[in-house]
Amino acid sequence: xxxxxxxxxxxxxxxxxxxxxxxxxxxxxxxxxxxxxxxxxxxxxxxxxxxxxxxxxxxxxxxxxxxxxxxxxxxxxxxxxxxxxxxxxxxxxxxxxxxxxxxxxxxxxxxxxxxxxxxxxxxxxxxxxxxxxxxxxxxxxxxxxxxxxxxxxxxxxxxxxxxxxxxxxxxxxxxxxxxxxxxxxxxxxxxxxxxxxxxxxxxxxxxxxxxxxxxxxxxxxxxxxxxxxxxxxxxxxxxxxxxxxxxxxxxxxxxxxxxxxxxxxxxxxxxxxxxxxxxxxxxxxxxxxxxxxxxxxxxxxxxxxxxxxxxxxxxxxxxxxxxxxxxxxxxxxxxxxxxxxxxxxxxxxxxxxxxxxxxxxxxxxxxxxxxxxxxxxxxxxxxxxxxxxxxxxxxxxxxxxxxxxxxxxxxxxxxxxxxxxxxxxxxxxxxxxxxxxxxxxxxxxxxxxxxxxxxxxxxxxxxxxxxxxxxxxxxxxxxxxxxxxxxxxxxxxxxxxxxxxxxxxxxxxxxxxxxxxxxxxxxxxxxxxxxxxxxxxxxxxxxxxxxxxxxxxxxxxxxxxxxxxxxxxxxxxxxxxxxxxxxxxxxxxxxxxxxxxxxxxxxxxxxxxxxxxxxxxxxxxxxxxxxxxxxxxxxxxxxxxxxxxxxxxxxxxxxxxxxxxxxxxxxxxxxxxxxxxxxxxxxxxxxxxxxxxxxxxxxxxxxxxxxxxxxxxxxxxxxxxxxxxxxxxxxxxxxxxxxxxxxxxxxxxxxxxxxxxxxxxxxxxxxxxxxxxxxxxxxxxxxxxxxxxxxxxxxxxxxxxxxxxxxxxxxxxxxxxxxxxxxxxxxxxxxxxxxxxxxxxxxxxxxxxxxxxxxxxxxxxxxxxxxxxxxxxxxxxxxxxxxxxxxxxxxxxxxxxxxxxxxxxxxxxxxxxxxxxxxxxxxxxxxxxxxxxxxxxxxx
Amino acid sequence: xxxxxxxxxxxxxxxxxxxxxxxxxxxxxxxxxxxxxxxxxxxxxxxxxxxxxxxxxxxxxxxxxxxxxxxxxxxxxxxxxxxxxxxxxxxxxxxxxxxxxxxxxxxxxxxxxxxxxxxxxxxxxxxxxxxxxxxxxxxxxxxxxxxxxxxxxxxxxxxxxxxxxxxxxxxxxxxxxxxxxxxxxxxxxxxxxxxxxxxxxxxxxxxxxxxxxxxxxxxxxxxxxxxxxxxxxxxxxxxxxxxxxxxxxxxxxx
Lengths: 940, 254
Description:
The complex is a heterodimer. By secondary structure, chain A is α/β, with parallel strands linked by helices. Among the domains of chain A are: 91-142 and 447-567, Rossmann fold; 164-427, Dimethylsulfoxide Reductase, domain 2 (3-Layer(aba) Sandwich), CATH 3.40.228.10; 719-751, no CATH class; 768-912, Barwin-like endoglucanases (Beta Barrel). Chain A has 23 helices and 34 strands. In chain A, the strands form 10 sheets. Chain A has a 7-stranded mixed sheet, sandwiched between helices. In chain A, strands 30-32-31-34-29-33 form a 6-stranded mixed sheet. In chain A, strands 11-10-9-21 form a 4-stranded parallel sheet. In chain A, strand 1 and strand 2 form a beta hairpin. In chain A, helix 10 packs across helix 11. The radius of gyration of chain A is 27 Å and the shape is globular. Chain B has 2 domains: 12-209, Alpha-Beta Plaits (2-Layer Sandwich), CATH 3.30.70; 222-248, no CATH class. In chain B, 22% of the residues lie in helices and 18% in strands. Chain B contains 8 helices and 11 strands. Chain B has helices spanning 26-37, 89-92, 120-124, 146-149, 162-166, 183-191, 217-220, 235-248, and strands at residues 12-17, 45-46, 54-55, 59-66, 74-81, 99-101, 108-110, 131-133, 138-140, 172-176, 207-209. In chain B, strand 8 and strand 9 form a beta hairpin. Chain B is elongated. Chain B starts with 11 loop residues before the first strand and ends in a 6-residue tail after the last helix.
């Protein structure tokens, strides 16, 4: 046949209209262009002007259209009519649903507000949901941070006034060495990928530290397949090597950290605290004058070396303690190599490369700036080493100290907030002092005495009642986990079931799949949710749940408030909460209904406003008894946290020309929509690095409403709040820990980073590490209902390293029995060579309960898919001391998901078993199942 | 049988960087979204919420483990779509003329109205780059987003295939591989870009940039002097060094 090339239209109309909003297919919050045809969503792409994703979009984001048309979407409010867990519901009206909810909650509020436990999962509106909880008066509020990455957030804020992800980012434009510790594939999804692409294009080196060589670690130039839980030891060993070689930034340490601050060495209740002057300022020795001086006095040059003697006692600076501790041979590479699973040579080589790039490749930017001591600098010194870390470090019971160690490593190299290093994003840097302390004082029929969550400064801030018992249902901010800044959502159900520390009446949750993949001990949690007391009543009497989809948790709830999808709602990604800022700019964003819901659902936050109005909650109600806001959009525009400061920083003031501070602008949402759904306020040139100490940044931040006054501070290599808990454990002060916790507090709340083996007592014989990670194309349980995404990750074998495959005679597709001290699962295996020799892992939250998510009951997610959660208990195995210890970090209470150790044995050939074990009864789907085939085309 | 053109004016294609691809599947889904809504029939899905979901994709990412002779195993993410071969066997095998290679840019396309869904082209393609859409009964393949790259309704910056526009890591590049001065040709030169299975004689236009050597840090870094030469073995000696070092700092006493 000869060529008869058809004529085709190469310029078809793309869409009728583009509507720009913010993605919610994961927590990354990218800007999206939603292409509309005939009033329907036709195609979603990234917004090129958006600060987060700059036009690119991940698989999840592009699959948003299949989330909107997902058959799993709930249709209307429902009340339970069958037993809990059965999935039997009756659809009701919103009026009835809100009537029921208010009918349960109002009496509680009058008598004992703490009997409401309100926990909000993967909530992106925490400044609003906490406002509701605070005005309701319950102390029992948090989101999911406690079982996610509170170690990372708290470790960062206590050490340097900011952490990774939304708190900061590498200086992608200048960095030459980027080191990743324990970063699963989904966190800070697009920015990390954009950054990796950028630095690889110019030949920078990437080092990945992770037991699993997939995703980002697969493209790392050097992969460190570390033994899980030993990152802290590896890091402290590198600190040892760098100190010994003198490869540390002494100028930086003396100016910007508390390394020169003198520690009180006198015996007594002040021992180990900083020497302070009458204004409570920490003291240093000025190297110029040799005098004892406040750390921030103009012109002072803090001395890292000099000591101060008085009354026969020598007070030494923090730096002396650091040198003494970390130069010890216990941190020598040879001493840690076996435990870390990294040859000593390699530890030295990596430390050497960090030093070489930080110091030999240092550079200067010609930018003038003035520091908080009034000293003018003509240049900014760049040290092009940057780091990032997430759950792999965080989800261990030694994670808090490991995070601190990692920041100390960054800091001794002088790489934080300098060109080429790690940079904060507004509203960070923000020291502990600029955060609230936690509040938990309950008054019936009145708001709580302040914000729930915060940063304790010492035992005085613990959330304890007068009798010393925990004020919160999750026991956050108690001696068991004093610095639990994000609460402990993973302990709520088990504590409520046990009535420990007290019984509750109503459990109210949002976007948290607690009866499945978001809980440890999943089967136990299901039993707790359905357990009845002697009188035949449920032990947890009432459960209200809001979700957009037919998740496993729906079946365990009494009242369902169906949420919209992200394309049908208003939201604000607020500077009061977890904003979308960049290192060079403050930024926030909105969502708005680019389509209207086609069913009887409401955005959860709007439902919450309506519920608050029904109860006439203070904060939501004018003095004349009328409601302040009708819905969430109304709140976003008109709420003021302080005069002139509201949820959105952009387009404030009568003319919409004020940013940060300004009067309410009724047109604000329209202005955001015109601007692409977001607002960016650029940090002035010269204020863009050294932010914690840079006068012009500090002034800009005050103008923006981020601080009320400039807040310069020192990085806390030595943490005084931690020392205060130790002092209490040593017997000082009025508030004393229970006896059984004294030793643990003395040891684990060390004010300088330590490493310890996580508590595996009772685990003899269980020697294999077991981990999960989330794939880049899925976000917890949501992806499975998405017809496109489930084709990418519809199965989750247990990946087993070659060595263990051989040892146990396993082949791909075989079934293996995996056992922990807590439970047993039987699952299909697949060999993976690029994996730590003694670690197995699987994708998180692919396994589904039959009947959930509108999948058919024979879907692979529900037959072969499985959860490791069945092997993990919220308590450690009994030690014979009469107590059960939490499976969490003793500092923050972070759920220690990744401490899991198992044993593995062959259970059969592929044909021997049809389904992964354990198998649960199907739950009745309130939405049926999806259509068989799809050919989804909106346009003609 | 269908003839290939003697030559094409340009050789438009993709250069895919295997050193940078993190295997996130962004390109896969963006392609699915664009091409469901645009050129030809939608890319359908069968058993979408059931036991064996399978749909039509024009681009898929495969992952391979590589075990070097020495050192750790590696994982390579390998995106694969039609390579728009110069000697495309899928065109010459087509009995109806539905498959053709465009003279102006070398893009291999299927004219769906002439396609009988016989599957010969898929059989002949050594790369497995063509998929039969079960619902529509026609052969689907990468169009290089022919309805984007010239589309005057798009801003110029957006006139690239959707997979290239969306790739978060910037691992996908688009351009004229027939022009030795194009950015993509230069990239291929600099990075040693490779043909996929050149032995098949299909002369693919798309190129792959190989991963850079990995796990070399111990060979590259001299862990002894001077970089990591100890300034002291003991804390006391260290303090002596410290005082001298502090004196050398700007504003110090030295």
